[in-house]
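Comment thread on ticket #2218

A.B. wrote:
> Attaching the input chain for the structure job we discussed in standup.
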Amino acid sequence: MTQNASIPVGKYFSSRDGHDIHYHEVGAPAPDKPSILMLHGSGPGASGYTNFNGNFPFLGDHGYHVIVPDYLGYGLSSKPADFQYKVDAQVELMRELVAHTGARTLVIVGNSLGGWFAIHHAIHYPHEVSKLIVMAPGGLEPPENFVQQMEGLSEMFRIPLERDFSIETMRKLFNLFMFEPAGVTDQILSERLEIARQQPVEVYTTLGGTVTAPRLNEVKAPMLALWGYHDKFVPYRHAQILLDHVPDVHLITSNRAGHWFMIEEPELFNKACLDFIEQ
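C.D. wrote:
> Ran it. Output below, let me know if you need it in another format.
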């Protein structure tokens, strides 16, 4: 599974159900600091490394224990076709991984699908989460309310269903993730293309979970939300849902970013995260 990997190989953890979860890890748990769990978004070929390789070393350099996993079905983790890729199941796998690393209190950083996981985790296991950082989190309202309106999201689901993984198709999709398409490099393509071709279609056809908006008032952890104004995947208007319902939330927006805030605005993102964690 690790031969000819398109991303650097980190560590592996075997879950109770025998699934191999791949992850990168920087540092070790410390009694005076939270561990940081960084949860990537969805999309063909996604992984923790491709989402956060410009971010997690920065946090590690500032003395934090950082865990950057690939969900089941993504990156270099196992990709079973007989698994229901629901939010609650993936969150439980992440909790197993966190326990394996020895981490206790968490700051969870989640992009898109990872933001959905982060909020779900904070609602159901509030004692484990000290702070939340989310970028355009999913799961805030039923997908039928907005999927057809979002060019990027519609294309993201079409490609794996039709197994249309040409370089041209993937480049077009990744251009939609970013405000400035020139930011989609050959490296981003190469890191994700081979992984995308290995992912079972069930990663997309069984994806789902409980919409979190009705329970956002239960989020006890302070939240930092970052949103690109030109997001073509999760509506910018969803930021208002967080502002209306999360008890303690700060919002940072950028008109120079789309859906990949942490890739498009890495310096702003890294500094905002560090400042928020250390408040």
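A.B. wrote:
> Thanks. Noting for the ticket: The mean pLDDT is 95.
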